[in-house]
Amino acid sequence: MRFRNSRSMQPEFGQSPSERRAVRFWLLAVAGLIFLMTIVGGATRVTESGLSIVEWKPITGVIPPHTAARWHSEFEKYQAIPQYRLMNPAMSLDEFKTIYWWEWVHRLLGRLIGVIFLLPLLWFWWKGWITRPLGVRLLLIFGLGGLQGAVGWWMVASGLVERTEVSQYRLATHLLLACLIFVAALWTALELEARPAITVPAQSRTTAAALLVLTLLQIYIGALLAGLRGGLMYNTWPFIDGAFFPPPTELFSIDPAWRNLFENVLTVQFAHRMSAYALWVGALWHALTLARRAGSRAAMGAIALAVGVTVQACLGIFTLVHQVPPLLALLHQAGAIVVLGLAVVNAQRLWGKRARAIVGTVQPVASTRRA
Question: For the chain, what are the domain ranges?
Answer without folding.
Answer: 1-194, 197-371
